[in-house]
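Researcher: Next entry: DUF7750 domain-containing protein (Hibiscus syriacus).
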Amino acid sequence: MLEDGGTSASIHQQSGQDSLKDLSAETKPFEGELVKEESVPEDGEIGQVLQTAQVDINMLDVTMPGTLKEAEKQKLNFINTSTKLMAISPESSMKLLEDASHVSPPPSSVPTTTLPLTFSDRIFLGFPGSWMQYLFFYYFQYPTSHFMETTLPKLKASLSLTLQHFFPFAGNLVFPPLPQMPYILYTEGDSVSFIVYESSEDFNHFIGDHARHAQDFQPLFPKSPPEVESKSSGCTQKPNMAIQVAVFPDVGISIGVGFSHVLGDGRTDAHFMKSWAAIHKSQGDLTCFTNCFPTFDRDLVNDPSGRASGLFMKNERVFQGSSSTSSVFFNNVRVTCKIKRSQVELLKSWVKKTCMEVYGSEPIRMSTFVVTCAYTWVCLTKLQQIGTHQNPSPDDFDAVSYFHFPVDCRGHLKLPETYFGNCVLLRMTAAKKSELLGENGILVAATVIGREIMEFQEQPFKDAETSWAKVVEIIKMIKDSIFVTSSPKFGVYTSDFGWGRPKKIEFGNIASFGSVSSFSISENSEEEGGVEFGIALPPHESDSFNTIFHRGLLKLS
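Model: Predicted structure:
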């Protein structure tokens, strides 16, 4: 058990397993339904809602075959989120329950270990937004006292067992004096900060799909831990992970996870979360985990030209995490847009049919990722067009829109999916806005995304060393750019601690500022085969985007 008030207490493996016993008494899934009453307007309010939103439905058309019937327009009105957006004040409603807790791997279970950074890791040393943040929301129908006395010890015990195998997360990122390169270091006693709050806010507000102010979520995300400088060695160390739990009494809990992107990519973090959840659910039975241990073989992930070292030396020492509290994130609202499996199939059918009509051949590549990202790209481009509708520039219509998406290189390097670290490249494609806004805009987007994926598969590491530098240059020039984070293949919604699947997952590192925006993509939380997008927008654009996005889907059916 953790020592009372201990600042760096570790959880012994045996006691951790004891803490996980009798877990089945509390790990029942939520039964029943929680409904946010104000989320859907009454019939008589539809006109008022549209008037408040100031949305011209005809201007927001997503060009696809077919017409929108009057009944569908009424259905669309219900989708709008334009009741007045008011930011709540969650910081004032957050009661600190535990702030001095740290969780370590079981004593003597991991030797002192040093891991070098690969080329893919070093890229994120100075990259904006490299402190990654996720929120997992679960129904949990118990009072706070039950959580603190029964659930919290088991969460920590299972986390300790998980960190035994994911030990770099408990370690530190070490910055030695230049010209030495940073590295990952784990030593006995290293730990992960674990903070617990109680929130009196509406749990349903956070798990909804409607527009919610980004600042509402900030108190729930774990902060990037401060670095510590050693005068004797001249090294600076920065913890690699932090965890923060918030209890919504008798309703639910949120588990916030923050970690340095220098340590690993989205697949690495998803692997960690699913492992922690599985160990907790199994009451510490590691046999369910035997074939899923992370691997740390870095021999095949290197920097043969030394370019990563050069980039680091040029940028010197830029610590990650500065953008996690950027005003950009505070000034956005978050919306969740879902595409059902049936709608994915309709999108694929439309793209295939139109491609045959326009090009006389089938699409280069037509996957769920390609067609859904193409659709969202077009929707965001149409939203940007509305922003310039009043004072359009002659160059607006001929401007180029850039689309950036990560690709996992594990398969190309013959690495297992359980490889711990960064193994992603950022691919970029582009299309003229005039083409994206045209009748076949979705086909145009799907074609260029599909072509980029095919080129990657044929020559996966062509221009790999300069791809990130190109992205930085484009951002500096304030070019129209859209970035995608995460992947439906990660299966983040399978992270079941024993309370059922997450009701909602929020990705912290999405934002919209000027002509640059980003969105997350994951599997649909409600059904298999669909996808779910988390999108950050300026508050005044959320209703317009919802109208564009959902109207296009309605026209498919």
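Model: Note for the record: The domain at 91-324 is CATH 3.30.559.10 (Chloramphenicol Acetyltransferase).
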